[in-house]
């Protein structure tokens, strides 16, 4: 993890924001702020009592010792031993850090005053977070056939499998969500570059309450002809990238922008994992009897590392395995895969928007 003026490891709760993660820890100027011993004093307040008095909600992770207090669409993120809170993604405020005493979280009066002032001056947020756009990427195409399954009696090209599944998936999603943007990176046997595929997603304009997901569809190959099964991939959480756009970075400033970038990195990773889980579970139910699940895995594929949003890459099966290739050559089987991915995406959207 590289150190900048402000370094952050951020996990945020998506119950009322766009992020699904749970916890954050700030490291300032390269100096780790360790929890200090705190002597309990008369004026210290039990955090849960404070939350109830504010008519707010509390999400806390006892393993990471950090959490989020939410009210009327606004949130305050805190961590034990960290003398700052993060207000609505954009503002750092210095306060005495919460601490653990007698099996309860306690805070100083300055912390209490800061939260009361913040929530009293913030109007309620009525807008609902929603997945506004879904970009579906049928891998390969045109001059690039992708993986090829070649047998004595038939031949199978990955690009055709990908397009058939993606087209069915887009059709189902458009019926379910007619007011949302459901986009395909290609609709025929053409070859958009990898850069063009992710640029289509990255350039979609969204409001602060809107989100987008990226789904790349592929088929697999192996030198071992016995290898078969489906996989779902997401970006390796250790991979560092810039996801804050230039406009936001300029607006927030050089101190806050790196923190927000780290928050978004963790947010997109967490959401990608949840999306991968939802799709993987549905595929297991739909095609698991014919094709074994090989797991949810992390890798730095080009499209998932360059898509600035939650993203997954699905390998629907091995064209080099004769039995699986025979299945993948059947339109009915490809529809089953598309239906499984569709149900997984719908499961994710329902989870996200709740």
Short structural summary:
This protein has 8 helices and 18 strands.
Q: Any idea what the radius of gyration is?
A: 23 Å
Structural class: alpha+beta
**Count of DSSP E strands?**
18
CATH superfamily name of the largest domain?
Answer: Zn-dependent exopeptidases
Q: Helix and strand succession?
A: EEEHEEEEEEEHEEEHEHEEHEHEHH
Number of helices: 8
- The total domain count is 2
- Quaternary structure type: single chain
Strand order of the largest sheet: 14-11-15-18-16-17
Fold-level CATH name of the largest domain: Aminopeptidase
Report on this model:
With 354 residues, this protein is an alpha+beta fold. The protein folds into 2 domains: 6-121, Copper amine oxidase-like, N-terminal domain (Copper Amine Oxidase, Chain A, domain 1); 130-353, Zn-dependent exopeptidases (Aminopeptidase, 3-Layer(aba) Sandwich). 35% of the residues lie in helices and 27% in strands. The protein is built from 8 helices and 18 strands. The chain has a 6-stranded mixed beta sheet with strand order 14-11-15-18-16-17, with helices on both faces. Strands 4-5-6-7-8 form a 5-stranded antiparallel beta sheet, with helices on one face. A 3-stranded antiparallel beta sheet has the order 3-10-9. Helix 3 packs across helix 8 and helix 5 packs across helix 8 (331-353).
């Amino acid at each position: 993890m590289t150190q900048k003026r402000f370094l952050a490891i951020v996990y945020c709760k998506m119950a009322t924001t766009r992020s699904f993660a749970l916890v954050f820890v700030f490291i300032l100027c390269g100096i780790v702020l360790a929890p200090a011993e705190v002597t309990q004093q008369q004026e210290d307040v039990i955090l849960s009592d404070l939350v109830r008095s504010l008519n707010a909600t509390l999400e806390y992770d006892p393993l990471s010792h950090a959490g989020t207090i939410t009210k009327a669409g606004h949130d305050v993120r805190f961590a034990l031993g960290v003398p700052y809170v993060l207000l609505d993604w954009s503002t750092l405020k210095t306060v005495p850090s919460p601490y653990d005493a007698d099996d309860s979280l306690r805070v100083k009066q300055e912390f209490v005053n800061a939260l009361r002032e913040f929530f009293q001056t913030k109007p309620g947020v009525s807008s609902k977070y929603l997945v506004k756009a879904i970009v579906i990427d049928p891998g390969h195409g045109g001059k690039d056939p992708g993986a090829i399954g070649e047998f004595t009696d038939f031949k199978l090209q990955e690009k055709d499998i990908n397009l058939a599944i993606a087209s069915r998936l887009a059709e189902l999603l458009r019926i379910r969500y007619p007011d949302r943007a459901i986009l395909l990176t290609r609709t025929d046997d053409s070859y958009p570059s990898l850069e063009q595929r992710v640029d289509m997603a990255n350039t979609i304009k969204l409001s602060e309450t809107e989100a987008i997901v990226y789904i790349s569809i592929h088929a697999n190959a192996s030198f071992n002809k016995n290898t078969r099964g489906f996989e779902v991939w997401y970006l390796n959480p250790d991979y560092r990238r810039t996801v804050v756009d230039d406009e936001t970075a300029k607006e927030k400033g050089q101190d806050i922008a790196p923190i927000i970038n780290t928050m978004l990195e963790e947010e997109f990773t967490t959401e990608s994992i949840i999306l991968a889980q939802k799709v993987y579970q549905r595929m297991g139910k739909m095609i698991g009897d014919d094709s074994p699940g090989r797991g949810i895995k992390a890798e730095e594929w080009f499209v998932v590392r360059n898509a600035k949003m939650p993203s997954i890459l699905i390998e629907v099966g091995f064209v080099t395995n004769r039995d699986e290739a025979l299945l993948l050559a059947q339109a009915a089987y490809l529809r089953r895969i598309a239906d499984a991915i569709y149900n997984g995406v719908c499961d994710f959207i329902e989870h996200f928007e709740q």
